[in-house]
């Protein structure tokens, strides 16, 4: 799964001279929290809703509402945008994009080719990708197994699944410790009883079926 498969290919953008109030209105109208800043298609920065709200004067200020609005109307994106933007390319994997967002605590990544903006991927897009990878919107059975952490364990489990002529819609593994591993299977069946029986006979402990 790659970023190009889930990114927005026509993200809403603004320029560096856009007034802050206008940018906030664009975000609220379109229900978005991130706006790439471009100049003739070239990415030069990014701004978030939090950035804009942070620079807004505090409610405790002694300025009047008219004075506040006047000050905000004079401020433009150039004054608050982030210029050192973390970006990805369309061929970046979903896992790498998710890791970048987590490590840098950001909610989106502009997607570029050279210095030109070609898309935007957000946390919501990442979640949509995971939902699709795990087959969560498809009818079937979710099964969690615990097994010995050894070479060939997954192959042996999938061999039994194949024997029962069941398709695997999604799969994930998590090391429980150095000796055991948990495996989640999303299967295209609503009658997994015979498979569960076979798995248990072969020493694969079925922890849950739903």
Automatic annotation (TrEMBL):
Residues 7-62, 81-138 form the CBS domain. PROSITE patterns: ACT, CBS. InterPro entries: ACT-like_dom_sf (IPR045865), ACT_dom (IPR002912), CBS_dom (IPR000644), CBS_dom_sf (IPR046342), Diverse_CBS-Domain (IPR051257). It holds the Pfam family ACT. SMART domains: CBS. It comes from the Bacteria. Coiled coil: none annotated. Residues 142-210 form the ACT domain. Keywords: CBS domain. This is CBS domain-containing protein. It comes from Desulfofundulus thermobenzoicus.
């Amino acid at each position: 799964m790659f970023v190009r498969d889930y990114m927005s290919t026509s993200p809403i953008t603004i320029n560096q001279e856009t007034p802050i109030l206008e940018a906030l209105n664009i975000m609220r109208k379109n229900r978005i929290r991130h706006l790439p800043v471009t100049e003739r298609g070239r990415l030069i920065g990014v701004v978030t809703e939090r950035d804009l709200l942070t620079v807004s004067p505090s409610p405790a200020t002694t300025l009047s509402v008219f004075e506040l609005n006047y000050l905000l109307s004079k401020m433009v994106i150039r004054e608050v945008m982030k210029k050192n933007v973390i970006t990805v390319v369309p061929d970046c994997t979903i896992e790498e994009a998710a890791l970048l967002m987590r490590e840098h605590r950001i909610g989106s990544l502009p997607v570029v080719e050279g210095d030109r903006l070609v898309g935007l991927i957000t946390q919501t897009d990442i979640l949509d990708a995971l939902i699709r990878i795990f087959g969560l919107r498809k009818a079937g059975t979710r099964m969690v197994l615990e097994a010995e952490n050894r070479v060939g364990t997954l192959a042996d489990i999938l061999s039994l699944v194949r024997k029962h002529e069941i398709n695997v819609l999604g799969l994930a593994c998590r090391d429980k410790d150095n000796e055991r591993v948990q495996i989640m299977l999303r299967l295209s069946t609503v009658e997994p009883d015979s498979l569960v029986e076979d798995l248990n006979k072969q020493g694969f402990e079925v922890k849950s079926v739903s």
